[in-house]
Amino acid sequence: MSDDETRLLRSLRDEHAAPLWRYVVHLTGDRALADDIVQETLLRAWRRPSVLDQSQSSARVWLFTVARNLVIDDRRSARHRHELTVETLPDTADADRIDALLESWLVAEALAALTEEHRTVLVHVYYGGRSIAETAAELDIPPGTVKSRLHYGLRALRLALQEKGVTG
User: Fold this and answer.
1) Is there a domain that residue 85 lies in?
2) Which of 25, 68, 88, 96 has CB 3.0 to 4.6 Å from 34, enough for a Cys bridge?
3) Phi/psi of residue 62, each to 5°?
4) Spatial distance between the Cα atoms of 1 and 123, rounded to a whole number of angstroms
5) In a domain, 88, yes or no
6) Tens-of-pLDDT digits for all 168 residues of the chain?
7) Rounded CA separation 128/106 (Å)
8) Residues 6+ apart with CB under 8 A from 85
């Protein structure tokens, strides 16, 4: 890498790293992940010298697009889908609740596989105990749409659970 390219890369980092980091923290809420994403984004810029030849605004757009795509890739990764965070660890395992806990995890994973619209309606009606009319009012959609999303959401949930080996 030439001295000019090194200067340009440093300039790119100095000008865009902090706003890029804030953007990724806004997307993820995770400061450590934001550090990793920004580092990977700048590494990709270093590997593509053509980015350095662009105008500052074009380079900024490129950097933010790459960072956003890295966040999306992280959210789609198996690590993210199967990783659960908790505030505190339980002291002892409760043998009577293990099956219920495993079932709730399966349902939570299956719900995560649904579209946001289906998941939202299912959560409002079944977990929130709301009626069709209450759900329609809260979500500002027609009651018929709530019924339709509920029907197709349950169907998709059943398929997602079957894919996870749950029968019945």
Assistant:
1) no
2) 25
3) -60, -45
4) 54
5) no
6) 677 777 877 887 888 889 999 999 998 888 989 999 999 998 888 888 776 666 767 888 889 999 999 998 888 876 666 666 677 766 665 556 777 777 788 888 888 889 999 999 999 998 889 999 999 999 999 999 999 999 999 999 888 888 877 765
7) 19
8) none
Structure tokens at 150: 């509920």
Q: Give the residue among 154, 158, 163, 160 at the shortest CA–CA distance from 126.
A: 154
Which domain, by its residues, includes 147? 101-163
Q: What gap in Å lies between CA 116 and CA 114, rounded to an integer?
A: 6
- Angle, to 10 degrees, between the axis of helix 31-47 and the axis of helix 56-76? 130
The one-letter code for the residue type at 119 is R
Contacts of 168 (CB under 8 A, 6+ apart): none
Is the Cβ–Cβ distance between 129 and 75 less than 8 Å? no
Q: Which two tokens stand for residue 120?
A: 């939202």
Contact 115, 160 (CB under 8 A): no
Element holding 107 (H helix, E strand) = helix 98-112
Q: What is the CATH number of the domain that holds 153?
A: 1.10.10.10
